[in-house]
Amino acid sequence: MAFSFNFGEAPTTDSVKDSGEEHAGPTERSAKRRRVDPVGVFTIPDDVDAQIANLPPGSQLLATFQAGVTLRGVSSELAQNEIAGFHDEAGLSDGDAGPAPATADGRAVAQAVSENSDLIPQVYEGGMKVWEGAGDLVNCLIQCGDALAGKRVLELGAGAGLPGIYAATVGATVDFQDYNREVIEHLTIPNYRLNVSEGAGAGLGGNAAGVVETDTVVAGTPRFFSGSWAALEEHLAHGEDGTYDVVLTAETLYSLESMPELYSLLKATVNPVGGAAYVASKVYYFGVGGGTQDFLRLVEKDGYFQSSTVMQVDNGVKREVIKLEPAANKNVH
Predict the structure, then answer these.
(1) Residues 19-78: tens digit of each pLDDT
(2) pTM for the complete prediction?
(3) Of 37, 56, 183, 207, which is most buried, counting CB atoms within 10 Å of its CB?
């Protein structure tokens, strides 16, 4: 199940907290984190290719997965610095934070960076860090071999967006959600664009003149959402395309209090006929609660989904990928 990240901080046993006090998953993530702000909806900006072309040397990095699959991405350290308003291209400067960030999210990430923290409760949800579950989920999609081409896919708690980006590279149309707008703008969207090209006449490696060369594939137009899961559920309920063939999420079961909100969104967004969700998580998040055990109890009690464990990883900490399918699916032929 090996995979290798080079997106800023690699998810080693030092950077991913996976057992005890030293390994507690997304540390100190607050159960009181949900604000009621409206969902932000974004598309890829017109100038994103120019921004990518002007990235400093060494800031485009690779994540390597099974079967030789590699995905490109922006260094999370660079993205953090941009959000915080830093201008030191080599990384955080000693004591020189530059101009103040322009938004509350930017200030929150700046504070998280300065404190070496995974999150600021109720404000910043740790989306700048690539957690091990994201790699598990990409590897699971590669292994499972489910046909994703032509499917509508949603990734929840996306951050760097690796699982959703992989789905897009094999032909799915993917939407992404992260709690923080700044994470969407500075990490998810650039990562998507580094791997996926859009528009008529585009193709493998089909870049406009002057844009950095990258092996990209064509996919449908993505949407990017920022805000809480409850707000996204309400937003999608008012549209005609609120359900998806596949919903992906990784490392989002860290809080018992927020788990029902995520579960409600999964029920609302997974297509009731033939749809599925893949949930990658640690079995238990020591020190913060949550994990697949508690989540599966919720699933079983509710009865809407049938569940199966499609991947297990035991590399210092037990992790799983759970597949959920509406129970009614088993009666559909």
Answers:
(1) 333 333 343 333 344 445 789 999 999 888 888 888 888 788 888 999 999 999 988 777
(2) 0.79
(3) 183
* Antiparallel, parallel or unpaired: β 246-250 and 276-282: parallel
Q: What is the radius of gyration, based on Cα positions, of the chain?
A: 19
Cβ partners under 8 Å of residue 62, min gap 6: 6, 70, 71, 72, 73
Alpha-carbon separation of residue 20 from 17, 23, 316 (angstroms): 8, 5, 11
- Could you count the other beta carbons within 10 Å of the beta carbon of residue 202? 16
Query: Which of these, 258, 200, 190, 197, lies nearest to 229 by C-alpha position?
Result: 258
| Under 8 Å between Cβ of 39 and 227 | yes
Pairing of strands 70-74, 60-64: antiparallel
Region of 30 please: left (phi>0), alpha (psi -120 to 50) or beta.
Answer: beta
Q: Which token pair is 328? A: 């009614």
